[in-house]
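One such given next:
>
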Amino acid sequence: QVHLVDSGGGLVQTGGSLRLSCTQSGRTDTLYATGWFRQAPGKEREFVASIILDTGLTYYADSVKGQFTISRDNAKKTVYLQMNSLKPDDTALYYCAAEMGRALYSREYARGDLYDYWGQGTQVTVSS
């Protein structure tokens, strides 16, 4: 079993930055990739970014390329999402999710249904 704890959200003005953290515990040796997803009020959950934990290879949604950076510190069992130049459209509940191979081997990193574990979410609000 794996437990994920999301943190780092908050209220920020347009143009500001935040760094989200996803701290993993338990059987983290079973994990292959970790992703970030977000869900704004009234909208469907959408993929933001993912990272393969051993190689560090990253994938991003087109909407955040060049704006967000996903990284990991395997020694700390933590995955980060650095978010810069934030806009009101980035306001959402952000979740990290980890998977045990289904997303990796299918290369379907944007599919939330392939992730096995989810954090509780951390709210990001960007004021205009």
